[in-house]
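Name: Probable leucine-rich repeat receptor-like protein kinase IMK3 isoform X3
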Amino acid sequence: MTLTNMVGVRCFFKLLYAIVVLILLHMNNPCIGCSERESQALLALKQGLVADDGGPSLSWGREAQNKDCCGWDGVHCSDQTGHVVKLDLQDQYLQGQIPSRIGNLQELDSLDLSRNQINGRIPISISWINRIGYLDLSENNLSGKIPIGTQLQTFDSAYGGNPLLCGEPLPRICSEEEKGPRQFVLVNEDDKDGLITQGFYISMGLGFAVGFWGVCGTLLLNMSCRYTYFNFLTFLNDWLYVNVEIIRQRILNK
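Structure predicted for Probable leucine-rich repeat receptor-like protein kinase IMK3 isoform X3:
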């Protein structure tokens, strides 16, 4: 192998390495984190639940630098995806009702609103959070029928201290009045897709620009890399042509 070919091969592998690094960086882009949809769901929860003593929910979104809801008090996000996975607002003197938009926290694994003064019904949208593995709504003033969901009926101790709640898994049977009208909640109303944000478009543009000029710019400016690249394409084309012809001849000879 001549010196020129060796330099070309090294250049080719450097290009390949750069492409792999760019792909990995784009996959781990920090813009994919606490989404606008999750932020709006938490702000709706803030409006529905009021803390008389200025509890943590009242500080959500108050300052411009707090736009990332992963930094809000009581909110915990995944280190891998950045999505909200835990909401802990126990014992915060919260009053009011749980809004239906809480169902937009689709990645939520743990929800603790215990030991507050929350009233009203449990929104049916909570039953749509399929990932939830821990739920505690005990010691509140909740009332009405517990929504029917795959997981909501498995949390036996999640509803204690709410004497006006009824339905499974509680032994208290609901009256017709307590069952209330059938609820149809449109959780996604006026919400944006969690991934399609301004940061998503910016990251796409930067990724395309860096990837395009990182590869094409190198081919345009470095003759040895360009020579190696087109030689590789020629070799690949010849290899495919020969193998296709061999397979075709084998089929015809049978």
